[in-house]
Amino acid sequence: MIDERTDITVKKHLSTCIRYVKNWVTITQFLGNVELSDGKAHSIVACLVEYLNKQHLDTSRIVALATDGASVMMG
């Protein structure tokens, strides 16, 4: 789950959470906030993939994406 927002200092951030199943239990965990260079779709995707790789998460195993529905997140 991801959501982009702008803080009071006008810096853009991407909040990320992950949901996974471990021992037949569904777990939702906050991963972190990452500062974005801008709010464009390609910047968000690049930042997200880089962040997931730094966390040693295999992006080929992602099966869904949840956002707030904004066009930049879905386009």
Question: What does the secondary structure layout of this molecule look like, with pairings?
Answer:
Layout: E1 2-6, E2 12-22, E3 25-36, H1 41-54, H2 71-74
Antiparallel strand pairs: 1-2, 2-3
Regions with little confidence, pLDDT below 50 for 5+ residues: none
Mean pLDDT across every amino acid position: 85
Kindly state the number of beta strands. 3
Radius of gyration: 13 Å
In spatial order, strands of the major sheet run 1-2-3
Protein name: DUF4371 domain-containing protein
Organism: Dreissena polymorpha
What can you tell me about this protein's structure?
The chain is of the alpha+beta class. The chain has one domain. It has helices at 41-54, 71-74, and strands at 2-6, 12-22, 25-36. It has a 3-stranded antiparallel β-sheet with strand order 1-2-3. A hairpin with a 5-residue loop joins β1 and β2. The protein is globular, with a radius of gyration of 13 Å.
Brief account:
This protein is 24% helix and 37% strand. The protein is of the alpha+beta class.
